[in-house]
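Budget justification aside, the reviewers requested a transparent look at the raw inputs and outputs of the sequence design task funded under Objective 1. We therefore reproduce one unedited record. The lines immediately below are the structure tokens for a 231-residue chain.
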């Protein structure tokens, strides 16, 4: 039996794509919306079984305040957070606010669906490896805070960063090639290298990963960046 749910995410396009994928799997999506002043009010008014809330900054103070309000006024609504690899503080904040689960943004749709079903059933929906990673970091804290967006950015050449920004803007290979003044085959090679380095299987996944980790915000103005010499 499908879940009656809502999808709330910073990036409206991603929220709508996720909602569409869940609809195709038989779930009833009441709304797909970007967070705004009225997001909590909308969830409270529609009272879904589960609310899936996306965030790129789970450790930011106050980021889960909407969950606190939702759980206070609609305690029967289960909330699952969709976000980057969390720090111990981030995952603790989500559950302290009343979340029933935490799912990584790069999880497959099957994993997201399992989390929704577990949350509806009143179970904690969090992958064991996330908890293990959180405990490991608490016991052996890193010298520097983990910044996934910055780490991913350092893996890419300036040319690949520009390609990623263009992919996130929805440009296809032909448009990327024209905009960068390179051959379509070269543009295609750059795209494939970006996907490989980010460990994703599609352009949509690459755009989602870049958006959720804040990589695009850190990239800054990259259009016309000098070629690194790679093909």
């Amino acid at each position: 039996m499908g879940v009656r749910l809502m999808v709330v995410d910073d990036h409206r396009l991603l929220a709508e794509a996720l909602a569409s994928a869940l609809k195709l799997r038989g779930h009833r999506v009441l709304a797909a919306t970007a967070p705004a002043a009225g997001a909590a009010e909308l969830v409270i008014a529609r009272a879904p079984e589960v609310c899936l809330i996306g965030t790129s900054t789970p450790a930011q103070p106050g980021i889960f305040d909407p969950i606190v309000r939702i759980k206070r006024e609609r305690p029967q609504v289960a909330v699952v957070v969709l976000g980057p690899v969390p720090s111990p503080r981030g995952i603790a904040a989500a559950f302290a606010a009343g979340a029933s689960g935490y799912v990584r943004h790069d999880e497959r749709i099957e994993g997201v669906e399992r989390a929704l079903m577990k949350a509806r059933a009143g179970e904690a929906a969090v992958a064991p490896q996330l908890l293990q990673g959180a405990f490991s970091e608490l016991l052996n804290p890193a010298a520097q805070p983990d910044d996934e967006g910055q780490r991913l950015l350092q893996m890419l050449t300036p040319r690949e960063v520009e390609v990623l920004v263009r992919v996130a803007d929805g440009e296809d290979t032909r448009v990327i090639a024209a905009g960068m003044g390179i051959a379509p085959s070269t543009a295609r090679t750059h795209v494939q290298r970006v996907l490989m380095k980010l460990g994703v299987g599609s352009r949509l996944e690459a755009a989602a990963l870049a958006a959720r980790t804040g990589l695009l915000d850190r990239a800054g103005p990259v259009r016309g960046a000098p070629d690194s010499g790679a093909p």
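The chain has two domains: 4-139, 146-219. Residues 61 and 93 are 9 Å apart (CA to CA). Computational costs for records of this kind are itemized in the attached budget.
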